[in-house]
Amino acid sequence: MPPNAASSAQAPDMPKTVSLEDQFPSHEWGLDKIVADLRASREQLHRTRHPLGIRELPSREAIVKIVNGLRSALFPTHYGAADLTAESVDYYVGHTLESTLRLLSEQIRRALRFLPENHDLSDAELGMHAFALAREFGAQLPAIRALLVSDIQAAFAGDPAAQHITEILLCYPGIWAMTHHRLAHALHKLGVPLLARFINEIAHSATGIDIHPGATIGPSFFIDHGTGVVIGETAVIGQHVRVYQAVTLGAKSFPAGNDGVLVKGNARHPVVEDEVVIYAGATILGRVTIGRGSVIGGNVWLTHSVPPGSNVSQGKIREGGAGDAPDDSRGA
């Protein structure tokens, strides 16, 4: 007899473990009715599917990978491989761009299917069109990088807390948001609005800065702090403009057509001319113009144009020689 056989034989029976599946079998969930009700909601009562039944959608995971690849190609020493040398960097950039633009072409193809003018195109025709757009987008990357460098330099010049360019590239949410916007705006202009909006919303989720990809923003744009900044689709912003947290460049009204649907694409957001500063919490609504060199103070609510060189604070406007904003309007 084995040494422990007697003690084992006398040991009480161990309690039997009952699995959750045994305790609550599938029929107890009432799944048949839930599935049937969801089908009724999906197919009859509350349809959300595209009228043509398009099921092949752009992939958020792929778009995140595309933006990361483009960022690495634009700034390889900051976002690329850690061991890059002067001899290997061009190879790295070329290899990264090839794989990234191939992935972008596929996502463009998926997004183009949602445009009415493409409904009758074959998959082959749509694929060729997507490839051409991705190639054209790639050709714009040097110019996009130049704009981003101007934004980085504006941040360094405009923020006394900034220690060096690397800190701005790696840490500043405004630069993160503008990287996404510069890329998204190029795609928007090329006629891929769904993909552009996807890129915008990824940055919005990460930074709290919401810039519609249709907004036109000139070079040397600096968003300080950034949280809560909203810039609408038809906003036009000049060069050397600085805005602080919680600034809104929005629309004042939303006209509807005879069918009750909101009219799309009207110019309804502000025009901000060169060298304007807009301090924290300011809200500017409608197709108004903020003249060159103006300063809009903190928490101002503005629904009319102001001439160049204006200094606007709560309750008053001073024209000419904008200078600095009032002390209680300064950003941190």
Descriptive keywords:
11 helices, 2 domains, acyltransferase, disordered C terminus, 332 residues, serine acetyltransferase, domain 1, serine O-acetyltransferase activity, globular, Serine_acetyltransferase, alpha/beta, UDP N-Acetylglucosamine Acyltransferase, domain 1
Distance from first to last alpha carbon: 83 Å
| Rg calculated over all Cα atoms | 27 Å
Shape: globular
| CATH topology annotation of the largest domain | serine acetyltransferase, domain 1
Integer average pLDDT = 89
Helix count equals 11
Q: How many structural domains in the coordinates?
A: 2
Topology as a string of helices (H) and strands (E)? HHHHHHHHHHHEEEEEEEEEEEEEEE
Q: By helix and strand content, what is the structural category?
A: alpha/beta
Strands, total number: 15
What level of helicity do the residues show? 40-55%
**What kind of assembly state do the chains in view correspond to?**
single chain
Fold and architecture overview:
With about 325 residues, the protein is of the alpha/beta class. The chain has two domains: about 55-210, serine acetyltransferase, domain 1 (Orthogonal Bundle); about 215-330, UDP N-Acetylglucosamine Acyltransferase, domain 1 (3 Solenoid), CATH 2.160.10. About 45% of the residues lie in helices and about 10% in strands. The strands form three sheets. A six-stranded mixed beta sheet has the order 3-6-9-12-14-15. It is globular. The model is unreliable at about 320-330 (pLDDT under 50).
